[in-house]
Amino acid sequence: MSDDSKALNFIEHIVEEDLANNFPKEQLRFRFPPEPNGYLHIGHASSISLNFGLGLRYNAPVNLRFDDTNPAKEEQEFVDAIKKDVKWLGYTWDTERYASDYFQQLYDWAIYLIKNEKAYVDNQSSEEMAAQKGTPTQPGTNSPNRDRSVKENLALFNQMKNGEFEEGTHVLRAKIDMTSSNMLMRDPIMYRVLHKAHHRTNTDWCIYPMYDWTHGESDYIEQVSHSFCTLEFAMHRELYDWFLDQVYDAKKVRPKQREFARRNLSHTVVSKRKLAQLVENGVVDSWDDPRMPTISGLRRRGYTPESIRNFTETIGIAKRDNLIDVSLLEFQVRNHLNKVAPRVMAVLDPLKVVITNYPEGEEEWLDAENNPEDESAGSRKVPFSREFYIEKEDFREEANKKFFRLKLGKEVRLKNAYIIKAESCTKDTDGNIIEVQCTYDPKSKSGSGTEESLRKVKGTLHWVSIKHAVEAEVRLYDRLFTDESPDTHKDKDFLEFINPDSLQVIKGFLEPHLKDAKIGDRVQFQRLGYFCVDTDSSSEKLVFNKTVGLRDSWAKIAEK
Ligand code: ATP
Ligand code: MG
Fold first, then answer.
1. Whose CA, among 406, 415, 421, 436, lies 20 to 30 Å from 304?
2. Which among 31, 192, 256, 272 is annotated as catalytic?
3. pTM, rounded to two decimals
């Protein structure tokens, strides 16, 4: 046992126990086995962290295996996206494998099973087979085709392979036990006919192996020692072992399947199939829409790989299914961006302010610290002039003592700049405030060291000089679903819980240096939250996504 055994999760305990029982450490090998039928989501991140984390812990290889046995749903686009996401999360696989690489070996083994009278071709309809399957409490009955001769089975299976049969007319079934208490053991299907081109093997095959037949044998071929999957496969373990028994050579490593709980995130769905529906129905723009819980969506939203890895580590691995609150994920990204994101000023709901005693035409470039959490981030210059924007909600004509922002007759500090005092305001014919007139204290410049600059005022506001501001499209996001657990309702489809207001597009005014921001750059708009440059952004039109809001109020930060 290693020293930090207290911190081990139950999966690591399984490995430790095997090592304690003389399993050779150098034979440890893991895999992460996605089906390339969609993009990876935050649930997969848990499985990735688990498997690659074990690889790192035991210095053991981890394969990236594409479980590509269903050509109807799988595409090269998804293979590429999955590889990109695993790399981006910071993991390196040993070898890239495909279940389709093993089609010939699986076929040869199927022949071997037929010869051993462990498999047979059934040409009944699926309804007939279902009727013979029995129920969890009633045994099934044998197919009339169960006792076909080896010769006949070989001939039929060969015809299946040669494309002589229509889809749905013939299957190869394992001959196990129609009375087993485990329904999955009642002569499960190993192969079906599918006249579909595969993204890698093209039209080489028109029979495709089923998941159960493929998965364990692929683990065995790759000599994976521990094959971790989610709980819904617990009942499949008996079949996994039965299939291995048929081909297992005692000199080789025998893979071991163990199960852990699927991770579900609140206010979203984590299933490729359901996420595909959101894309197909136009609920979101694409798999990497920043509202999606996909790894690519989170990346585009501004999440860092570190924040996602910290999230999976914090929630850990469980034995029972449960719902993880999305706020835990948001906490991690906020925490990380607080350390690494440069601070900038942006105004998203502008109100014009004019300083009547500031000379017209004059401008100053003031020092502004880039990140109070990181001295090495340095500082920048921010332009100040007579006219600037503040947020509408930061001004009121009158307000009670708890309102520490700008109100008539009172002072606030402008971040990195001067103390100003509101003197009057102008309204439009509907009574909306459209401009505030202020005076400023020229001696109060931040960092100038004068007595006035050290004077404490209650509020500090962010602002952007109007003359210098750059405009950007800013996309604000809300949860994609109004329900905490949209896909758990018996009587309602998850699509009924879509939040119609999950995207709001507004115009923002930013510090001028942001005109050079690059796609993927992450910043903190002070007092507003963390934002990043979207992939739609260009030098003609800047586009920012809101990643997450701030935890701390500005007041606390300003007092430091
Ligand atoms: P989906 O329903 O989203 O397609 P899946 O399990 O069919 O999920 P796979 O591509 O087969 O997706 O998954 C690859 C690996 O990731 C499997 O080992 C699977 O158990 C694991 N995995 C998938 N979803 C989750 C989740 N929500 N939490 C933890 N692990 C998951
Ligand atoms: Mg799947």
1. 415
2. 272
3. 0.94
